[in-house]
Amino acid sequence: MGPSRWGGLAALLAGFFVLLLDTTIVAVASPSIQADLGGDVAALFWVTAGYLLAFSVPLLVAGRLGDLFDPKRVYLFGMGGFGVASALCGLAPSMGWLIAFRILQGLAAAAMAPQPLTLIRRLFAEDERGRAFGIWGSVAAAATLLGPILGGLLTASLDWRWIFWVNVPLCAVAVVLGIRLIPGSQGSSTRFDLLGAALSTAGLSLLVWALLSWSPLSVPATALAGVLLVFFWFRERGQGEDALAPVGLYRSSGYLSASLAMASLGATVLAMALPTMLYVQEIRGFGPMEAAMVLAPDAVVAILLSPPAGRWVDRVGGRRPAILGMSLLATSILLIGLVVVLSLNPWWISVGAAFLGAANAMAWSPLSAIAMASVEPDAAGGASGLFNTVRQVGAVTGVAVTGAILAWLESRPALAFAVVFGFVGLVAVGGVAAALRLPGRSRVVEGV
To answer: TM segments (predicted)?
Structure first.
């Protein structure tokens, strides 16, 4: 395969950069959005929660659509839709319209998200995928780092609406690059499981809504979601090649362990961010810029370490780097938690943040590579959709549980932070246990 594979990766990275930039750029502008459009805190919450809900739920369907209609087409359709939705967000006349347009953004992002794993699998041989995923990790960390900075600059110098409008030219460039550089395919002739799509969409919608809202209806909604998803599971087991989600992959120790470790990684990284920022700013009196600098080593270290970590995966396989990465994750939570619980100098959190960046760099590439290594090419989209769904639901669950603990123990902040970091630490340790069950290189079978 010639140099065009790196051009294809560059086109994928351009779109992925826009997607991740938007997840971190909005939080900085939240006060300005509320001052301009009005609305209470609950409405402002749903500007982000609505996006998360729309992004998380359709991932299974989007992955399967990539198998059926070519992941390149679905990816470019999602990128174009993301650009249009971003323009509409910038034009929103009220908080209600902004929430609606953010939901459109989330749907477009869901169409994009599962396709890159499938396309990287197509572009790169097994012994090069670690390097590709390593570069991917660097770009992800860069977008995470630049999002708050760019959001602050645009909001301060222009207007909050520009945090959305800046996406439009970036999406246009990504679409042009994708059309020219990403290889296409004819897609699959298998049938689309409409009933499975309905069951999974309804079940995941209820589950994610219950996790995000924490209303009196959350418990019955979670129970109903569980029933629908159990029906979906048993239906998919009998669908064979037509399955929306190839749940049979969970018989593979590599795919199952990688999925659980990735869910732990997603939950831990997102769940620790809110309590850390609250502690640094509300308890220790740091300003927004100082607080951002405390966690900046996370992204900086991830940017620097992701490419060499990816090359290491290509040389030795994914198991050892993944175990190291998940162990670093647990260590980072221990360090940050000790600083918070023992009321040490908040700048010591930067040490834990550096460990967190190393964990992201070491774990993301091997977990993604191992998960996709045993997948047949025709089922790669469904497998990627399932992998991304587990990761996203894990992340939403982590954030929801953390928020609930902080709310329940609001009058006792010291205890609240201790319980939060204890919970997050247990999740990280669970990720280490999952990584220890990953197969060695010789036991990961490449689908053909």
So the answer is: 43-62, 74-93, 132-156, 162-182, 217-234, 255-279, 291-310, 322-341, 347-372, 393-409, 415-436
The answer to whether the beta carbons of residues 124 and 133 sit under 8 Å apart is no
- Indicate if the pLDDT at residue 260 is higher than 70: yes
Query: How far, in Å, CA of 122 to CA of 383, rounded?
Result: 14
CA proximity to 67, closest of 192, 237, 232 = 192
Residue 440 — φ and ψ, nearest 5°?
-70, 175
- Model pTM score: 0.78
Q: What pLDDT, on a 0 to 100 scale, did the predictor assign at position 75?
A: 92
Residues 6+ apart with CB under 8 A from 148: 24, 25, 27, 28, 292
pLDDT at 333 over 90: yes
CA distances from 212 to 102, 122, 209, 217, 339 (A): 16, 35, 5, 12, 28
Q: What angle do CA 164, 108, 95 make, to 5 degrees?
A: 45
Residue 371 has φ and ψ, to the nearest 5°, of -60, -40
Tokens, residue 325: 């990465």
Q: Which of 24-38, 194-208, 302-316 has the lowest mean pLDDT?
A: 24-38
Give the count of alpha carbons within 13 A of 132, CB side only.
Answer: 26
Measured CA to CA, the distance from residue 203 to residue 182 in angstroms comes to: 33
- Looking at 288-440, which runs of residues are DSSP E strands? none
H-type alpha helices, 71-166:
71-91, 95-112, 115-123, 126-157, 162-165
Longest CA–CA span in the chain (Å) reads: 61
Residue 323, C-beta contacts closer than 8 angstroms, at least 6 positions apart: 432, 435, 436, 438
Of 124, 122, 128, 155, the closest CA to residue 30 belongs to 155
CB atoms within 10 A of CB 421: 25
pLDDT computed for residue 102 by the predictor: 93
- Closest listed residue to residue 407, CA positions, set 209, 217, 274, 219: 274
pLDDT over threshold 70, residue 192 = yes
Q: Smallest Cα–Cα separation from 413: which of 340, 348, 330?
A: 340
- The torsion region of residue 7 among left (phi > 0), alpha (psi -120 to 50) and beta comes to alpha
Q: Which residues contact 198 (CB under 8 A, 6 or more apart)?
A: none
